[in-house]
Amino acid sequence: MPHPQLDQQIAKRLADKDVRFTKGRRSVVAGLVNGEGPMTVTEIQESLEVSVPLSSLYRTLAVMNESGVVSTHHSGQGLTRYELAEWLTGHHHHLVCTRCGTVDDIEIDVEHERQLEVLVSTLAGGANFDVSDHSLEIDGLCHRCQR
Amino acid sequence: MPHPQLDQQIAKRLADKDVRFTKGRRSVVAGLVNGEGPMTVTEIQESLEVSVPLSSLYRTLAVMNESGVVSTHHSGQGLTRYELAEWLTGHHHHLVCTRCGTVDDIEIDVEHERQLEVLVSTLAGGANFDVSDHSLEIDGLCHRCQR
DNA sequence: ACCTATAATGAGAATGATTCTTATTATCAG
DNA sequence: CTGATAATAAGAATCATTCTCATTATAGGT
User: Fold this and answer.
1) pLDDT value at position A106?
2) Which of A29, A35, A64, B68 is the Cys-Cys partner for A70 at CB 3.0 to 4.6 Å?
């Protein structure tokens, strides 16, 4: 399923950076758009109808990451997972399943997010740390892995 | 620098699980105890006075992880980092430097931690997720990497 | 449409972290 | 002290990821 708004935002961002938005790249991005949360390279590859070689897939993801279109996430078994950057999907947090390793995005209401931001800047301030981002990671069993 | 209390707690845990606490294992644990936060295998290896072969180091860390003595953490460049489990060091969160990749532990006062816990269980409850742990990860530049 | 410069692709080799295999050595219980 | 079992060490094997380089596609100017 195509997603015109996102495609257009991404195309603009890439054009600004003089990075081409080719068929292969569009295909990879489409795979990410259809995912529920951060995906591994293998998951992305399997989700594509037209197969993209691994080397191209990795390179595309690296380019998208440098362009700020995707962000990376490490968790569970240490595999790198990729998802659309937050300016495209909105700020969110992660539910990490300790059994199957999948990561689901979860959103948080505005007032709780405010609380979190205050907490983050308080903590970071005390450590002379220059914050650029934060993420609440919740570990446990996803609904699929609970018996 | 030795740390008798921790050593004793760890020895007890391992004894309960019928896992031996050998010289090599003590040495690796000592390396972790002296670290400021989650360490990579390389960092651990370099911190040891008596060198431990990589294969043994990895195996020891795997055993300690299974025994609940250490926990793993993935961030930055995707390297696995190891640290003592929270029941030994107390609950804490992480400051992850996006430049050098180091991770520092940071503690949080009781009332803020309560807030966080409420938030976590609210979020997880809505997603039918069975929470076992949570961690607030703050990304940015550590004090060493700020010019 | 046709060149041309340049960027992107794809196949496979190379790297690097981690895991596995197996023979040797250390440890615990009796 | 001795045997049974667990732990160690060395190197091979694996797996994700990155790199190399020859080929192909793309955008802009003609």
Assistant:
1) 96
2) A64
- State the residue for tokens 């031996």: B20
The span from the CA of A49 to the CA of A27, in Å, is 9
Per-residue pLDDT tens for B51-64? 999 999 999 999 99
Tens digits of residue pLDDT in B2-11 = 788 999 999 9
Chain B residues with CB-CB distance to A75 below 8 A: 74
- Cβ-based neighbour number of residue B41 at 10 Å: 16
Q: Which residues contact residue A1 at a Cβ distance below 8 angstroms, ignoring those fewer than 6 apart?
A: A34
Indicate the residue of B108, B127, B133 with minimum beta-carbon distance to A106.
B127
A76: nearest CA partner in chain B: B74
* Sign of the CA dihedral running B103, B105, B106, B112: positive
Query: What pLDDT is stored for residue A76 in this prediction?
Result: 73
Measure CB to CB from residue B78 to each of A74, A132, A140 and give the nearest one: A74
A120 has a chain B CB within 8 A of its CB: yes
Helices A110-126 and B110-126, axial angle in degrees (round to 10): 140
Global pTM value? 0.92
Chain B residue numbers touching A40 (CB-CB < 8 A): none
pLDDT recorded at residue B2:
72
Task: Give the pLDDT mean for A19-32.
Answer: 97
Residues 6+ apart with CB under 8 A from B50: B27
Q: Which nucleotides of D are covered by protein (CB under 7 A)?
A: 6-12, 16-20, 25-27
